[in-house]
Specification:
Strand content: under 5%
Number of helices: 8
Number of strands: 0
Order of helices and strands: HHHHHHHH
Helix content: over 70%
Radius of gyration: 21 Å
Length: 153
């Protein structure tokens, strides 16, 4: 089936079925966004989700730069990043549900809850390591102390 024919047949589906096909599990794909843009309030949903994901990306870059600089704030920022995972997921779910007038159960259908949960658990293991590890403490606390001593001289 060609792209034109598939998009034409897609637009003939009822709105709830189109949302179900778009929202999960390929929500972040380029094709999924293109199809979502054709729905009522679709552009608002897409731009809102992109803004939310960009804000999360900025937080990740800040954490990464703090790690590279061996900042004493890295551990705290890493913890904030961990807390941001479920917050971003909840905000995204509420945003899509509200803008598209779709029930939350439709947005969370299928494997929509699996990846954020796995991401949260795996990152939680790393957060525990970052807070409990003597090696990490020595790397980031000593780097901050040596940076203060170097700047004082």
């Amino acid at each position: 089936m060609t792209g034109l024919a598939s998009s034409a047949s897609f637009s003939m589906l009822p709105l709830e079925l189109r949302l179900k096909n778009l929202i999960q599990p390929k929500r972040v794909s380029r094709e999924g966004y293109r199809q979502l843009m054709t729905l009522p309030n679709g552009a608002l949903a897409v731009y809102g989700e992109i803004a939310l994901l960009l804000a999360f990306l900025v937080l990740q870059v800040v954490v990464f730069v703090a790690m590279l600089r061996r900042s004493s704030r890295f551990r705290q920022l890493f913890l904030y990043q961990w807390f941001a995972i479920p917050i971003v997921f909840i905000l995204d779910t509420v945003w899509i549900s509200a803008v598209m007038s779709a029930p939350v159960s439709l947005v969370l259908a299928g494997a929509g809850l699996v990846m954020p949960a796995v991401s949260f658990v795996l990152t939680g293991i790393w957060v525990a390591y970052v807070y409990k590890s003597v090696r990490v403490r020595n790397t980031f606390d000593r780097a901050a102390i040596s940076g203060q001593v170097a700047s004082a001289s």
